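JOB MANIFEST
job_type = single_chain_structure
chain_count = 1
residues = 384
[input]
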Amino acid sequence: MKRALITGITGQDGSYLAEFLLAQGYEVHGIKRRASQFNTQRIDHLYEDPHDHDPRFHLHYGDLSDSSNLTRILSEVRPDEVYNLAAQSHVGVSFESPEYTADIDALGTLRLLEAIRFLGLQETTRFYQASTSELYGLVQEIPQRETTPFHPRSPYAVAKLYAYWITVNYREAYGMFACNGILFNHESPRRGETFVTRKITRGLANIAMGLEDCLYMGNLDARRDWGHARDYVRMQWLMLQQDAPEDYVIATGQQHSVRDFVQWSAAALGLTLAFEGSGVDEVARVERVAGPVGPGGQAGRRDPADRSGLFPAGRGRDAAGRRHAGTRAAWLDARDRRTPDVRRDGRRRPRHRAPVRDAARQRPRDPRGLRTIARMRQTGGMPA
């Protein structure tokens, strides 16, 4: 049985990758940070009691800032594959916390690679580094490919550039099977709510439910290549199944604007929007909808540093047999992306209700589900 170690397992990509690898028959180990609040919502459905016979899903406390901790975990697990997905991944936050971003995103990758080398695992362990299309920044050519020069424009992108080149360095200097995956934007219902796609879907859903009356946006005409995270983690795995290590650009090959995403999300909720004005004065008003709603979303300032011309043409087709991963229907239709109701042992798992927002107090009410999860954690039923 193959064994994989995933950093960032509690995130969007980490949770989908864990699901995929378990389905492939892997034993999966994940590293999670200690937090004062529960941070395992995306992987709670994968949890296995460590006292059960032969569990295949394991969690370890750790942090990319702690080299001794990483070395100990790698020594205990001795994985066949390491997927480094952990990062401070928000571009805007990287301007507020540049040193922390560099410590985790840049030096954290170095700590992992050096631990693999120090333990003598470079001949047996394959390494995947989650890189980003933010490396291209001020684009030098359209479309982008693996040979396109980088021009990062944020502390996050600069830190990821170091991680990219240190991965290449360890591949060339020590013969490690180490790959960079330059992934363009990929979304899902598990995407963090500070990212634009979830900001849009959550904001419009609140408007449709009468909980908010306005959604403020930045540049509606910014264009992005969006795919689905479930498809992209499969590409990550495929990179480590190749005969030789290479770096790959992964994307759908299709661009859409933020305005398009707003309109698709509104349509999925039954909202009809009418745009009026231009620039920072542009407003989209809700014209028709069933149920109580307020006015539509208002366009905010345009971001002068916003990327333009990002359009990929990578060799991902060679690695996976296809490049076009995901469609807009796949990102927006959460009905096909729900948490499984049945566990791998065939038993039906209890279904937990999501917290309901109290419009008057704006606090989550929990009639049943989350308290059950909290009690299970407190009694040792699942990891905190």
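[summary]
Confidence is low (pLDDT under 50) at residues 291-308, 318-331, 334-384.
The domain at 3-192+226-255+308-349 is CATH 3.40.50.720 (Rossmann fold).
exit_status = 0
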